[in-house]
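#struct-help
A.M.: can someone run this one for me? Single chain, 437 residues.
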Amino acid sequence: MNSNRFRNSVSAQRRVTEMSNWLRQLARNRLWDFGAAVIAVLGIAHIAMALPQRMRKEDFAHYYVARQLVFDTDNPYTVPVAALYAQHGLDSAGVLPHITDPPTVLWLFAPLGVLPLPVAFGVCVGVEIASLILILWLTRRLLNGRLSTRGWMFVCAVTVASGTVYWHFCYTQMQLSLAAALLVALMSQRAGKHTTACLLVMAAGLLKLFPFVLLPWFLWRSSGGRVTRARRTALVVAVIAACVCLTGVGRWMEFFRDAMPLVRWYAERASDSFSLGSLAAKCGPDLRAIGPLLGPAFIAFGYAGCYWCGGDAEAEFCLLSAAMLAGGLVVWPHYFVFLIFPMAVAAVRIGAKPTVGWVILFVLLGLAMNRFRLPDGPFLLRHVHLFFLVCAIPLYGLLGLAAFFWREMCARREPSSRFRQKVVAKSVSGAVMRPRP
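D.P.: on it. Structure tokens below:
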């Protein structure tokens, strides 16, 4: 019986090895180069055709009027933006009633108001294009040669053609710049520049708040003893306080009092918001009550995983990036640009030991996190809760990616020194007490 089990095990291992070799040979096929080029061209053309129509629409529109909101209003978060849009010839149909950006964003984009509209739009788009190029370059650098040239070209092509990048440029958002800042921070951390890394994450958090989720991890994983980390934390807190004072404490109070309720309203009702709290709020009053707790709980669960299964910094960063989105208040389609690097990491790790199952799972995750088109049909429209569950497919992909990196951390965890001492002591005790045959 033991010999049969041994043969079956060897045969299964041989089949797995043969399948892995076949998948590697398939990945080396030069048709993938042609396919990557076609995908990249189609993706760029898709974005290029949409950009001219978006110059007068949100979200660029409220960036363009930021200067007027900062200098000509008492409270920018109570001013109806439709009238301001009309003054500058911007499209005011279906816009948000009030601005919802933090004061730091208003100050950052205030200089755009002195530029002609086409020039200001070109500056915004140019910065985001440069940020996307930086993200793709940093992705290859951070993977330290584990991503081949062909693989990197395919990552570039799929990224440019992805739904999240398309919607990011359609709404002229700034998330690509923030994602690039986080990757620069990760690169700085690997280079031993921990204070620089923490300040970069802090800057991203001051602009959009939710990147603050990653700040404790950068402080925790920084070098030095407790005193050094405490000083670094004090420096970050001091810089945050200084930025709040410079942009106006009153402005921040107005932001949390007047703008955040509108953000929460959209989080609870928008069908294209993909966070745990948002999904819970849309699935009935019972779940709506616990919705605000699901996001922080999921983020805490991610940090607990880093504590229990720590040691793989790359997987920890990717897990917390996924938790940052899933646990956020509102997560629009363009927020998924933060997952460009985590998806590349997942591809590299699966490609190291490819199996059909893992390859299929990776493809399904990628498709799910780009399924932003809302479903239609009379059946779903009659069942509202089912409609929202189907709309949340990108969230399911996000949770699957987080589970993948949790598994990666657990699989690569090294036993603690105390555990190794117990194992050694137990083995020595067993050897001493074992009776002679």
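A.M.: thanks! Residues 26-55+115-415 form one domain.
D.P.: also worth noting: The two ends are 26 Å apart (CA to CA).
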